[in-house]
Amino acid sequence: MSGRWEDLVLVGRIARPHGIRGQVVVNPETDFVEDRFAVGATLVTRGPSGEQTLTISSFRVQGGRPVVGFEGFGRIEDVEELAGRELRVPEDTLQPLQPGSFYHHELIGCVVELVEGTAIGEVERVEGGMGGSLLVVGGGAGEILVPLADAICVDIDVAAKRIRIDPPEGLLDLNEVRHRHDLPAHGRGRPGGRSGQPGN
After folding, report:
1. pLDDT tens, 11-49?
2. C-alpha dihedral over 147, 150, 154, 159, to 10 degrees?
3. Is the pTM of this model over 0.90?
4. How many other β-carbons are positioned within 10 Å of the β-carbon of residue 190?
5. In CATH, which superfamily holds the domain spanning 5-93?
6. Maximum separation of any 2 CA atoms in the chain, in Å
7. Domain boundary assignment for the chain
8. 101-197 CATH fold
């Protein structure tokens, strides 16, 4: 599997070992869990010694998260050092999406501006899943949460890294987050609309 690490797309993070037979729990960053972590699939990780290609030898879902084993890793001692590592794939292996849907990595880095041209900031990350995503836009005063909905994000051009928005009056002020710890523990509601796939 070739490609620079920076050009590979994040699909999951190894959380911790599971059991004594070299399996690990993965925090997925993809809506296509069964495809990405299927037996025989290959993933790239990076550690102190550099990049490493891992081939999945076993897969199941437990508690909503993948539990996978890798070829050549048969004991808990073999996988302890993998905890916390990212799992990535080449962008050209991603599944094509329906029109109006986007992978998160395509939206990150896009400049967000109002329809009249006023710049709001840049997309730092995308929260939520299919049908209910929020763009987290970094601005001068802090973060602004913008629902990824057709009525608000009226023009998304990932090639030009630009998103034009037409927010309802007051939405930007309402969704400005100066301190992330001020968010309620239960999170925010996520209006429906465009689909921003959480990975890949």
Report:
1. 999 999 999 999 999 999 887 899 899 999 999 999 998
2. 80
3. no
4. 17
5. RimM (2.40.30.60)
6. 59
7. 5-93, 101-197
8. SH3 type barrels. (2.30.30)
